[in-house]
Amino acid sequence: MPSLFDPIRLGAIAAPNRIIMAPLTRGRATREHVPTPLMAEYYAQRAGAGLIISEATGISQQGLGWPYAPGLWSAEQVAAWRPVTAAVHQAGGRIAAQLWHMGQLVHPDFLGGQQPVAASATTAPDAAHTYDGKKPYHQARALRLDEMPALLDDYRRAARHALDAGFDGVQIHAANGYLIDEFLRDGTNHRTDAYGGPVENRVRLLQEVVRAVAETVGADRTGVRLSPNGAIQGCNDSDPAPLFVAAAEVLQEAGVAYLEMREPGEGGTFGKPDHPPIAPAMRRAFTGPMILNSDYDPAGAVAAVADGKADAIAFGRPFIANPDLPRRIADGVPLAKDVARTWYSQDREGYVDYPAAA
Description:
The protein contains eleven helices and 14 strands. The protein is α/β, with parallel strands linked by helices. An eight-stranded parallel β-barrel has the order 3-4-5-10-11-12-13-14, surrounded by five helices. Helix 8 links the parallel strand 12 and strand 13.
């Protein structure tokens, strides 16, 4: 069986190991969602990952509602991303851009006071991060059928911009309660048109987005992230197994480069499982590389790949305080702890000042 440290082919990307850096929102772009030079230093420090998946990156202003998060819809943003990807490549790494539409989780403050859009007229729980602190979410409005072509065009543009900016590929964010996930799950999709009701309708937007992006940059440079198990940010499904197996079949048909799965264990930090693991059934439906991201520690990651449960493992938070995470795992070096108060701050502290192991 393969080792966590063996190379793997992720479509067009040749990864030298199977330790993937999961997307991590860090809030170091500008208020106008333009990447900064500090981000180049951060990502280059972590170039030892088999593949870096960038922080979630907005496909449009409509889809981005996080303070100081980057976008990929403007020429200015594309130009500012180029030094970031160049720094990663110079350090020997590979990086994919995660394409993000937040759906109901965009606060009107980011939209000039307009309503956010979602699968249906729903309101997210809890509160949104805004430039003026946390504020309650507002009710979203359902996307109209005549708005779907423009949404797909936004994904196409962002994917094209990603390659123009030097990324090696893209990942479609279809997880964690954001727009595509809101269409997938019956807890947030109350539509009665071609995008709602039975499973084959609820996977329609995912299928259309994947096709649009794959036609733009190639299926071999297109990955997808899903989170099939448990309520996340107000998004859940009453019977997720057949839904997400159908989603996996969509990805199999499209021939995407890989599927990254966020399915937390009982001790998960982002959502709790409501059902038995769904990844094994999805693995039978999708025969491409499957990357699991489920709060693994190094030993568990080694075992999961060796046992064939996954082809690679994505680590999120461990990469914050351990820029040299693959080497630490290989050498058995204890992992450093990150500082939560600096996760989303705008300076160097807790971002680029974590040292590599001696």
